[in-house]
Amino acid sequence: MKSVLITFDQAFYERILATLDRMNCRGFSYLKDVQGRGSKTGEPHYGSHAWPSMCSAIITMVDDAKVDPLLEALHKMDVETEQLGLRAFVWNIEKSI
Q: Cβ distance 36 to 91 under 8 Å?
């Protein structure tokens, strides 16, 4: 089991949900208003007058076999509209209840 944290411009929300549904990744937690900035490129997402856009984040637990197809789908989405910003991070889940 892996955990995938997806951070994204709020404009991606519907597309990411559709991707999770299509890949049968049912369980997730959604954080609606997240502020931040990319480590290399992209504009800050602060929700301020100067930087009005906001980010969101979704964390989901998926079977190991679903990780690579999910990352490929998310990467494709990011490449199509790089200026918005989308990142995904994966780590192992040792235990869950």
A: no
pLDDT at 58 over 90: yes
Q: With 80 as the cut, is the pLDDT of residue 38 above it?
A: no
Torsion angle of the four alpha carbons 49, 53, 54, 58, in this order, in degrees rounded to the nearest 10:
180
Of 16, 9, 3, 23, nearest in space to 55 by CA:
9
Q: State CA 84 to chain mean position distance.
A: 12
Domain ranges (residues) in the chain: 2-92
Compute the average pLDDT of residues 71-93: 93
Q: Based on the number of CB atoms within 10 Å of its own CB, is 36 exposed (0-12), middle (13-18) or buried (19 or more)?
A: middle
Is residue 52 pLDDT above 80, yes or no?
Answer: no
Fold assignment, 2-92: Alpha-Beta Plaits (3.30.70)
